[in-house]
Design a protein that fits this description.
251 residues; 3 helices; 26% strand; disordered N terminus; alpha+beta; four-stranded antiparallel β-sheet; three-stranded antiparallel β-sheet
């Protein structure tokens, strides 16, 4: 029994008339498509594709230089084109370097200290308010600052110290700009405690936390501290005025 199918619509594709064999008055259509026609597996063939030979190669004549318009002419002045390329690369490199410099400058400026911080970095001290033989403490950059007006006896004693007896060897003349004035950062070099002025076994400074003794030049003489007291940056702006600033060299 043969039944003629006049129209079959499958997946929105109109199928032309197809003859199928059915003994149960049903149409068995296999779900294989070849072109526009569904075929059973016995009639299906593998598809073979070849290179597309019917595609027209586009023309790039509108993008060519006049010197290169003729493909048969090899005289295209390569030196001129090379010079132009070098000029463009060099110009682009200069622009990129300038832009990179501006970026780095802006980045570094954002990490610099602000105006209020810079203002605290400088302090001016009137030396006439400090009597001879006394030590006065100030606050500078968040740290204690000791300024000592030394007597002639203290100067003579500290300058006569044998350097071989010192843990951190440093002569008194290397730690002062004026022998009468000793300027120190009042932070113990052991664990950062604040020493007591005019105390200790050597008449200078004493740290009660762990027993470090400093002389009147701020040099460690006894105790666990490994180094002498720090000397800050300072200068004498006049005979009676001392100016501290981070821009000055150490004494």
């Amino acid at each position: 029994a043969l039944q003629v199918i006049t129209s079959v619509k499958y997946t929105d594709v109109n199928i032309p008339p197809l003859v199928a064999q059915s003994t149960l008055a049903k149409v068995k259509v296999d779900n294989y498509i070849h072109g526009d026609i569904f075929l059973p597996p016995s009639s299906r063939k593998s598809q073979q594709r070849s290179s597309h030979t019917d595609i027209t190669v586009p023309s790039f004549d509108n993008y060519r230089r006049p010197a290169n318009a003729d493909p048969n002419n090899s005289d295209t002045n390569p030196d001129g084109r090379r010079a132009f390329t070098y000029m463009m690369v060099a110009g682009g490199g200069i622009v990129a370097a300038h832009a990179a410099k501006n970026v780095v400058t802006d980045l570094v400026s954002t990490m610099s200290a602000s105006a209020d911080v810079l203002a605290l970095a400088q302090i001016e001290v009137d030396l006439t308010t400090i009597p001879e033989g006394k030590s006065v403490a100030f606050k500078w950059r968040g740290k204690p600052l000791f300024i000592r007006h030394r007597t002639p006896a203290e100067i003579e004693r500290e300058q006569g110290v044998n350097l071989d007896e010192l843990r951190d060897r440093e002569h008194d003349n290397d730690r002062v700009k004026d022998p009468s004035w000793l300027v120190l950062i009042g932070v113990c070099t052991h664990l950062g405690c604040v020493p007591i002025a005019d105390a200790g076994d050597f008449g200078g400074y004493f740290c009660p936390c762990h027993g470090s003794h400093y002389d009147a030049s701020g040099r460690i003489r006894k105790g666990p501290a490994p180094l002498n007291l720090e000397i800050p940056y300072y200068k004498f702006s006049s005979d009676t005025t001392l100016l501290l600033d981070t821009s000055y060299a150490t004494p």
